Automatic annotation (TrEMBL), chain A:
The chain crosses the membrane at residues 26-46, 185-207, 228-251, 263-285, 297-315, 355-373. Belongs to the ABC-2 integral membrane protein family. The lineage of its organism: Bacteria, Pseudomonadati, Pseudomonadota, Alphaproteobacteria, Rhodobacterales. Keywords: Cell membrane, Membrane, Transmembrane, Transmembrane helix, Transport. It is found in: Cell inner membrane; Cell membrane. InterPro entries: ABC-2_transporter_component (IPR051449), ABC2_TM (IPR013525), ABC2_TM_bact-type (IPR047817), ABC_2_transport (IPR000412). It is a multi-pass membrane protein. Residues 151-376 form the ABC transmembrane type-2 domain. It comes from Thioclava marina. The keyword Cell membrane applies. This is Transport permease protein. Gene3D superfamilies: abc type-2 transporter like domain (3.40.1710.10). The keyword Transport applies.
TrEMBL record, chain B:
It comes from the Bacteria. One of its GO terms (molecular function) is ATP binding. Residues 7-232 form the ABC transporter domain. The lineage of its organism: Bacteria, Pseudomonadati, Pseudomonadota, Alphaproteobacteria, Rhodobacterales. Pfam families: ABC_tran. This is Multidrug ABC transporter ATP-binding protein. The keyword ATP-binding applies.
């Protein structure tokens, strides 16, 4: 035991690393400042469900039904009628030039047909070049339209409401009734931010020793590979824990993201993830030779994990091969865990799958790193 | 028992790809001895030292350091040997004291060891200075302090005085001699001749091969070289005349003198006399210096390589 893991030696290594971290002011500030800054920036900036999109209205008559419809649409928050009196030709141009995202056309016989009891139609043309722009606004439409009409006519209340309710179920209402992207983005951001800082910092930790020539000295002293690994990894794990606190507090206080599930379960999952990340970083640093290479490998790893993990795009929407690829990324499993626990109130049994996988990552990365470690300078 | 030898290695060989960096080098260093390890840059000194303290695995050869097998007992050797790297390899963003505390922790020594070492090497007043801010001499002092703190029986110093001023070098050597008197064995690599002369024995390595070894007078005698010193007004002319003459291997100006060195005394004397007569200078036989020997050996080793 003494030979592979001596507590006193480990503590010495950790203390040294902590002093170095503290002396490197810029990096230290980055480790704590960057997560908060990124959270604020992306938490507010990234929005998959954009609102207040400019719209044009083409209406033949200014009757009460049309007005009711326009008001109802504006009430959803998706539409801002910046061109309320457009002609059909004008509207077409506005849409083509991108000045408006929607054109709402109320036909001239709208009121007449409504009063006759027909099914009147209104036309909404959406600029779907960015599908995300259109989807939210369009999905609320039929319900809003029926509600508006119901109110305006005061007729067939029951029947209309039932129809509306059926539509309502289809729309994204499950865990996020208001469709707030932040609830989805913020927990995911925690994963991305942790990944960014943890993997990058740790991946440079060991290569820094090699680059500065201190590795030769370290190797000539009686320290074991396990001690060197833990001595590098644990201080960064500590920093990660602080980052987690900062981001979780900000999620609660600034973004009001709900914490539905057990806080302890959440912590356990996050710490497992952080552990996997720092050991992955260490693994990278045992393979590369310079800090520059460490940086490159880290970035090479970032892109797929942001794009394929389900952070940016729906995981189940990807083709099978991409999903398999996504399964090999710790972030994928972390997102399942944190979204489950934070937003859905998942129990341990619900998220035990992702937790096991994260644990597996820790073990596999650690074994790979230890086997990669060069005890000599060969 | 081979206990009287601190280092006893034979046939050490290391190749990096196609290149043989160390070629069947054998070394013996007695306990309590200061052994010099000399050779030009890139001759394989550092690689040999690294193999002996378990930092590199030899491709061939075997041996014992402090009685431990260098191939299988690396960890034990690391614990009993103090190794000072050629390049300063302590943490520049840690203070002197923090660096020593780190080393003490790794060797599981108490705080007292750090305090003693600080006092011992006169570092106490500077203990809160960052290692990166120290001058060459103080850095070297810190490195020495760190590698003798755990009281090793053998010290391997890889060009310890590179970039250190003469006074600090002198103090460093005094320190080494004091420790050797207490029974510490020291292997020190250098290419300063004055330092070589402060060693009990020297080993000269060039192009990966051990060329000669022994005490300084032995090495000089074994080289079988003769030296003439020319004094006179037209030395540069004499130098031109002597180059390539029979028996003349080296011609080197030393201040106002010209040293002419060769293996064959008879031919050398004839050539020197001719040149002296032609330029009106005086020639007389002199002692061959260690430096002349090494330059001669280096040239010959290079010829053998070709």
């Amino acid at each position: 035991m003494n030979r592979f893991l001596n507590f006193r030696r480990l503590l010495t290594l950790i203390r040294k690393e902590a002093i170095q971290m503290r002396r490197d002011r810029l990096t230290f500030a980055m480790m704590l400042g960057v997560p908060l800054m990124q959270l604020m920036l992306f938490g507010f900036a990234i929005n998959n469900d954009p609102k207040h999109l400019p719209a044009a209205l083409v209406a033949a008559d200014e009757d009460k039904y049309t007005r009711a419809m326009v008001t109802a649409l504006e009430m959803t928050g998706y539409y801002d009628f910046t061109y309320p009196n457009a002609s059909a030709a004008q509207a077409e141009h506005l849409l083509a030039s991108g000045t408006v995202a929607f054109v709402v056309t109320v036909p001239s016989d709208f009121g007449t047909r409504l009063e006759r009891g027909d099914n009147p139609k209104i036309l909404i043309e959406a600029d779907a070049t960015d599908p995300a722009v259109a989807s939210g606004a369009v999905s609320t439409l039929s319900q809003v339209a029926s509600d508006a009409v119901t109110r305006a006519t005061g007729q067939e209340w029951d029947k209309k409401t039932k129809t509306a309710q059926q539509v309502q179920v289809v729309v994204h209402k499950l865990y996020n009734p208001e469709g707030l992207t932040q609830f989805n983005i913020v927990p995911g951001l925690l994963g991305v931010i942790l990944q960014m800082t943890m993997v990058m910092m740790t991946s440079m930790a060991l290569t820094r020793e090699t680059e500065r020539g201190t590795m030769e000295n370290l190797l000539s002293m009686p320290v074991s590979p396990l001690e060197i690994m833990l001595g590098k990894v644990l201080p960064y794990f500590g920093v990660g824990a602080v980052q987690v606190m900062v981001v979780l507090l900000a999620s609660k206080l600034i973004f009001h993201v709900p914490f539905m599930g057990s806080l302890w379960l959440l912590f356990a999952g996050i710490l497992l993830f952080v552990m996997a990340l720092v050991i992955l970083g260490y693994l990278i640093s045992s393979v590369v030779r310079t800090q520059m290479q460490a940086m490159q490998v880290t970035i090479f790893y970032f892109l797929p994990s942001i794009l394929l993990s389900g952070f940016m795009f729906p995981f189940r929407g990807m083709p099978d091969w991409a999903q398999y690829l996504g399964e090999t990324l710790p972030l994928t499993h972390f997102l399942r865990m944190i979204r489950g626990v934070m937003l859905k109130g998942a129990s341990f049994a619900d998220v035990s799958g992702p937790l096991w996988v994260l644990g597996l990552f820790v073990v596999v990365f650690a074994l790979a790193a230890l086997s990669r470690f060069r005890r000599t300078l060969d | 028992m081979a206990e009287q030898n601190a280092i006893e290695v034979s046939g050490l060989t290391k190749r990096f790809g196609e290149k043989t960096v160390v070629d069947h080098v054998s070394l013996e260093v007695k306990r309590g001895e200061i052994a010099g390890f000399l050779g030009p840059n890139g001759s394989g000194k550092t690689t040999t030292i690294r193999m002996m303290c378990g930092l590199l695995t030899p491709d061939e050869g075997q041996g014992r350091v402090l009685g431990h097998d260098i191939l299988h007992e690396g960890p034990t050797i690391k614990r009993e040997v103090g190794y000072m790297t050629q390049r300063f390899s302590f943490y520049e963003d840690l203070t002197i004291e923090e660096n020593l505390a780190f080393v003490a922790g790794v060797y599981q020594l108490g705080r007292q060891a750090v305090r003693d070492t600080l006092a011992d090497l006169g570092l106490t007043s500077r203990r809160t200075q960052l290692a990166g801010a120290l001058s060459g001499g103080w850095k070297q002092r810190l490195a020495l302090a760190a590698c003798i703190m755990h009281r090793p029986q053998l010290l391997m110093l890889d060009e310890p005085t590179a970039g250190v001023d003469p006074k600090a070098r002198r103090e460093f050597w005094d320190e080494i001699h004091e420790r050797a008197a207490d029974g510490l064995t020291v292997l020190v690599s250098t290419h300063y001749m004055d330092e070589a002369e402060r060693c009990h024995r020297i080993n000269y390595i060039a192009y990966g091969k051990l060329i000669t070894r022994g005490t300084v007078p032995e090495v000089v005698r074994d080289a079988g070289l003769s030296t003439f010193v020319l004094k006179g007004p037209r030395l540069s002319e004499a130098q031109r005349l002597l180059k390539g003459k029979p028996g003349v291997d080296q011609v080197a100006p030393y201040g106002t003198d010209l040293h002419v060195i060769g293996r064959n005394w008879v031919e050398l004397e004839r050539s020197v006399t001719e040149a002296a007569n032609a330029t009106g200078s005086e020639a007389e036989a002199a002692e061959t210096s260690l430096e002349d020997v090494f330059i001669q050996l280096m040239g010959e080793a290079q010829d053998n390589m070709a």
